[in-house]
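sanity check this record:

:::
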Amino acid sequence: MSREVQPCDTTRAEAYQLWMKAPDPMVTFFKTLDVTDLLKAVRRKNMKFNMLMEYCVGKAASGVSEFYILPVGEKLIQYDSLAVSTIVKNKSGGLSCCDVLYTEDLYEFNREYMKHTSYAADHSENRDLSENSMVIGTSAIVETELDGVVGMNTGIFNNPFIIWGRYRRKLFRFYLPVSFQFHHTQMDGSHAGRFLENLQKEISDLSRF
């Protein structure tokens, strides 16, 4: 579910005044993650790398309350749930966006991810959950290694967005640089930093599955 809230009734009232009409309110953080435990889970559980990354993104975001409020147009919208969006190569040779509702149960999230991304790929259709869930965008550029990406501010979509490329090996560990873009009205740097720390923790915690 989603509903409009008044900025003065939220913790984002001052940020709303400062950043809603700023010419460029988007901020990008860069961080290198240790994904060694994620790769072990890929092999041990026969699960996809990107699915596990997106599960960890959803779980990390669920622990930061600011992710549940998003500026949409000139309004602040409060959401009760989160979804993670992935870019799918479809049979038409193009790309489809597929939103997957975040659930804390990894195996349920995996089932939903496989079901809906397969459908999007086979039918060249987008799946949009933004009406009822705050959607975190993701994009995996697997064709190359990336040091970082600065996303574009369209003025239409204010959703947080995380991008990564190929992971890298250094000795016996594997590392993945990521770029995280967010709207300053939605969160401050401290919230984004906490999310990225949560993300590393959730990736490391995959070792217990």
User: Anything to note?
Assistant: The mean pLDDT is 95. Residues 50 and 140 are 8 Å apart (CA to CA). The chain is about 30% helix and 30% strand.
